């Protein structure tokens, strides 16, 4: 068996990144774009000792769970890895992914898993998109999505996960750039001006934000762009974000408002939120409401509790919880997000929420030490964490264990790091009581999960 050989594979499983898995001669092969139940002809592109990667050449027998993808670019684009799989099976895949990680990485045996929360209409669900801007071989300005694992732009202004208004906005931005000879940024040379177009839309409010991320400090003829964008219904904020670093990180530190205000407002449940371009805000508002509802249910609040919400962003979960708790403290690393959080509390008439800027793994341990030095024990009934994919720092987990809240609610967007962190907590006095996946990212391999841990007497 060697590279470029062709094999017939029956796809029997799917890997964490969504590739189909088939076996041949005791070797395991990963085939991108093949789904469970397919029989495919595939060409070996990489061979290791016990496994390899193969390219899908021909679909010999289509799986009963295969569906016609909604997007013509799905095989090239890196965004939706499992769009060819029926939505029902996607949900099964995600629930299994969470369960497997808890078993394999977390070492859990009895997992109190509840059925995954799926979406009724799993398309056009994203309230945010960041489109890279570039130049094609003919010198035209293009925008779209990066091809999987590369930075080659596939021109596409109609992503099936995004909103139809994205196309209108992108047409305006690209026409403007061509008309006024505004250059696109080139990652290879570090030259050129416009790097990305960030679009955000409040689903309840219908307010829209456009932010151009530029490799510079100003946008020539910016007033002309504003004039055109203002015609779009609900346009609320047009801004520039300056990022002159040669980096893959999209956003820079400085935002300049070109027109309107810096933020848009949106509602989830009974709470309304201000969101600025650099702040994190869940991308699927329909599912977010269900996710926060579960976090609230798992927190089991009755009005007397002290709650910490770590990695709080613009205070979304904090304010949801504050309605049912005595006092909520939120911690978040991005200063603008904390400004949003503070204003969001005021806007919603919530007086029992306080916010701190800093790293969770520094703010909470420092608070604990300060209280200890004053002869007090830092107290919490419930601690909620909602970290980015890399999960929680061990220093934070140690402090949580020391504070010994009755309940820990863990909201996670990566079940591998979730499992790693739950293992640490469950070795030190906690028991996993409830787990539920919520599909926030339909057609991708990613899923959100929320867990509830109770303190047990040791
Ligand atoms: N709970 C919020 C945000 C969750 S996303 C919501 O549902 O909207 C994770 C957040 O953690 C982001 O806002 C990110 O800026 C923040 N963050 C990342 N690393 C952090 C750290 N070490 N300490 C505190 N916040 C951090």
TrEMBL record:
Signal peptide: none
Any one GO BP annotation for this protein: rRNA base methylation
The organism's taxonomic lineage, starting at the top: Bacteria, Bacillati, Bacillota, Clostridia, Eubacteriales
Organism for this UniProt entry: Eubacterium ramulus ATCC 29099
Active site: 413, 413 (nucleophile)
Molecular-function annotations in GO: rRNA (uridine-C5-)-methyltransferase activity
Keyword entries, A-Z: Methyltransferase, S-adenosyl-L-methionine, Transferase
Coiled-coil spans in chain: none
Name of this chain's protein: 23S rRNA (Uracil-5-)-methyltransferase RumA
